[in-house]
Write a structure and sequence with these properties.
Helices cover about 50% and strands about 10% of the residues. The protein is mainly alpha-helical.
């Protein structure tokens, strides 16, 4: 009967689909937290995650590469310690808030003055171009001299126009944005611990520009927006008061410049970032943990 042939027909079609490449036979992709995020310092290829005897290891698949396997727990501990370096204490937080409050009072007026100065320069260049053209028409300049001076003025005009556009664009780069950035960045460790796996990966991508394994050592290079914060000297409780202004004035100058150029990442776009009032901070409760495993 026809009904008895149906299973064999289905099986035959399935086999044909595999043979002709119409069926995806790839194995299921595991959602390892550091997949394709860590490179080998020796050959610069990505470390591949694999599970062995209940543990996850990341290893280089390049033949004869000396890089050993690295356990996921080792990477997780280094990532946690990296985010610890971004955190700052109450004295640091109090100082940068005062500095930003001062910036807020002068920022609007400085933006207005900069726009006026650029508009004046633009007007002056146009006037010089008109006078240059008149001189050429009156045969006070030969064509070669006219073209050279005109080219120079046009280049200067283009620079002023670009600066004017940047100034208008930077109307959104107010000190408020810098303050939000610092608040969220300071809570990055806690946010990373509480984040979903995908948000945690995205946070690590934003905060680091390079991630390499050399033996069992994990080297995490901070991205440009976090270099000054991560690499700042540790300020002890007994450190002199001048240590904080000296360190944070440099940090704020760098971040203000990046903010003006539109290079500060928008941390608020990630749902995983915690504000100070969103959750309890273990560091403030005396429960600091430098070896949290991120799974």
């Amino acid at each position: 009967p026809r009904s008895t042939l149906f299973p064999y027909t289905t099986l035959f079609r399935s086999v044909q689909a595999v043979l002709t490449g119409k069926t995806n036979t790839r194995s299921q992709k595991h959602n390892y937290p550091y997949r394709r995020m860590l490179s080998c310092a020796a050959c610069h290829y990505s470390l591949i995650a694999e599970r062995q005897k209940g543990n996850v290891y990341y290893r280089c698949h390049t033949k004869k590469c000396p890089q050993p396997c690295v356990r996921e727990e080792t990477i997780g501990a280094e990532v946690s310690q990296f985010f610890q370096k971004v955190r700052y204490d109450d004295r640091e937080r109090e100082y940068y808030k005062k500095r930003i409050a001062t910036l807020k009072t002068t920022w609007a007026s400085r933006q207005e003055d900069e726009t006026k100065n650029l508009n004046l320069k633009q007007s002056q260049i146009k006037d010089r171009l008109n006078r240059l053209t008149d001189a050429y028409l009156d045969k006070a300049l030969d064509k070669t001299m006219f073209e050279e001076r005109k080219k120079s003025l046009l280049l200067e005009q283009k620079t002023v126009e670009e600066n004017l556009m940047n100034t208008k664009r930077n109307n959104g780069a107010s000190p408020d944005k810098l303050e939000i950035f610092l608040e969220l960045a300071g809570n990055a460790w806690l946010s990373h611990q509480l984040a979903t796996p995908e948000d945690a990966r995205e946070m690590l991508n934003i905060f680091t520009s390079n991630r390499q394994a050399e033996g069992q050592k994990i080297d995490l290079k901070p991205s440009i927006s976090f270099q000054e914060i991560v690499n700042r000297p540790k300020i002890d409780a007994c450190a002199p008061e001048r240590a904080i202004p000296r360190t944070w004035d440099r940090i704020l100058d760098t971040l203000t410049a990046l903010n003006t150029q539109g290079l500060l990442p928008d941390l608020s776009s990630l749902s995983g970032f915690q504000h100070r009032g969103d959750a309890t901070d273990p560091m403030r409760d005396g429960q600091d943990d430098n070896s949290v495993v991120v799974e």
